[in-house]
Design goal:
alpha/beta; 7 strands; NiFe_Hase_small_N_sf; elongated; about 20% strand; about 180 residues; about 30% helix; five-stranded parallel β-sheet
């Protein structure tokens, strides 16, 4: 039997969802017997190939992330929104209460840890911010929602097992943990 093909991206997020995937620990070996990771932040691949399952973690906060989400949707038979940022917008939506110009000033000038002696906000060097950070399904169709911050390893593994069995999982409330 051919292995399922998987692509993952993390957008406006902390990488906690992908770290939680690694928390599957030794069980990942049996999963990788059935799945080939074709595109991921940890795989050296330049183009998102056609895959069976795509996983997006992180919210959409800029035009580059919107482009990646649309590309993932095009290339994936099943698209999974993974983690609270992808499902709900997550902590990224805290910026939604500020004008975009103020967000950029906070990030590039006013933050205590920022070293920017000229006080310049990059222009062409950074993707254009959306007016608000938003969940994935405001731009592309999502087939599976996996909430959690981050989703725990057992839930992630269960979702993959369900998908490999040909079922579209709906994560039960008792599997949604917020540790």
């Amino acid at each position: 039997m051919a292995k399922a093909k998987l692509a993952t991206v993390w957008l406006e997020a902390c990488a906690g969802c992908h770290m939680s995937f690694l928390d599957v620990d030794e069980r990942i070996v049996s999963l990788l017997e059935k799945v080939d990771i074709m595109y991921s932040p940890v795989v050296d691949s330049k183009e998102i190939p056609k895959v069976d399952v795509g996983v997006i973690s992180g919210a959409l906060g800029n035009d580059e992330e919107v482009h990646l989400a649309k590309k993932m949707r095009e290339q994936c038979d099943i698209l999974v929104a993974w983690g609270d940022c992808a499902v709900f917008g997550g902590i990224n939506t805290m910026r939604n209460f500020m004008p975009t110009k103020e967000v950029l000033e906070k990030a590039y000038i006013d933050t205590v840890s920022t070293v920017n002696p000229k006080g310049v906000i990059p222009g062409e060097d950074i993707p254009e911010l959306l007016p608000k950070a938003i969940p994935i399904d405001q731009v592309v169709k999502v087939d599976v929602y996996v909430p959690g911050c981050p989703p725990d390893a057992d839930t992630i593994l269960w979702v993959f097992q369900e998908l490999l069995e040909g079922r579209i999982p709906k994560v039960p409330a008792d599997m949604m943990r917020y540790d």
